[in-house]
């Protein structure tokens, strides 16, 4: 896969390297800086060492604050002390085993793995982008991109090439299809109308951060669900408008006449796959109806005290429900399509999904230790309380604070493209700080979603950026990093602006972000 930019590929024919737009030259600098960063696993151990030094200095200085939770004095503890060493050794395994997202993400992935590896998700995506009128193909691909996040990283592998093929099939530029599919996944990664594995990860990290202030805090994986549904629709509309009004007018959309498309996937489903998809969707509909019927009665054992749905066993175990739903439709599809031959294939596919998550689980070990160290030193309390007091004293409007956090995290996201890694670093500071300003943890998490997604489509630090470039080069061999960035930049910027405006409208109107999750 060629990844080097060539003269004439970033800004159109004849563009010299020294005349590239400033944004694209800046991306080259970002790429060099990002490449200099260590792997996120080591980054958290480096941060732990920095935390240890800071805790030693602050503890020696006797730094403390009064906890707003109970009025008690909170003193910074030295991580490099004997007590700190004992804590680190004694809690290492428990930190990892008890890390909020661990069990949830593994359970969800086992279910999603069946749906993905049997071919159900690929078939559903093909149908979603192939059976729409020509005038709706841009919206269909864009919306499919937001839905495809249930497949995690596989979304890029499945939908990006299908986007190019869908556009080509209706007489549109396949280059534009690649761009639309990639950007809708990358810059809308945290906006999905269907609960995804990321929702479980973020909710777990947010819960751990919120407990710095409130030990009983709990953030559900569907705490931003309503906001995600609205966000996915808005982003698909924005992508459609920008694509049709701006990108479609570019003069460099023609594919190479000799492009080799032999390895490009087909949008067609075999009769057997179509039959399998129908059976799987029917099974899913029946299961969903059964779940609704079980939860609907106020006396249902799946409801909480007094018939509450917001604090209920159902929402508490929503990750298991999602996992079972995906496992069900995937199994039904696989049995009919032939991708599941025996009952033994089901646990095998689940195990393959867990193996795919191994790098994330390894990263979770480092994240879990860092978060425990951060909590134990009480530095998070000091930063949160002092920051909140400073903001109250200066009278800075909360919307300015929101914009500042959004801008800072968006910049960090250009270099640290792992959403879980970035949120693990930021949440212990911003979540408690905003809670002290009466901003719910769920609202801070919704704000983070925008920052974690917006700039992803333009940063060459994302491995999926390079993957998308490879798909683009099937249609245009001389395409380089600058080529893809010049296409995705207008979409990413407009999506971020629109998404931010939606957040402020949601917050201003006081609409709940999800079940039992007030926005303010």
From TrEMBL:
TM spans, by residue?
A: 42-66, 96-115, 136-159, 225-247, 280-302, 314-335, 356-376, 396-416, 423-441, 453-472, 484-509
- Xref: InterPro entries: AbgT
Recorded superkingdom: Bacteria
Record keywords:
Membrane, Transmembrane, Transmembrane helix
Q: Does the keyword Translocase apply?
A: no
Protease is among the record's keywords: no
Name of the protein: AbgT family transporter
Tell me the organism. Promicromonospora vindobonensis
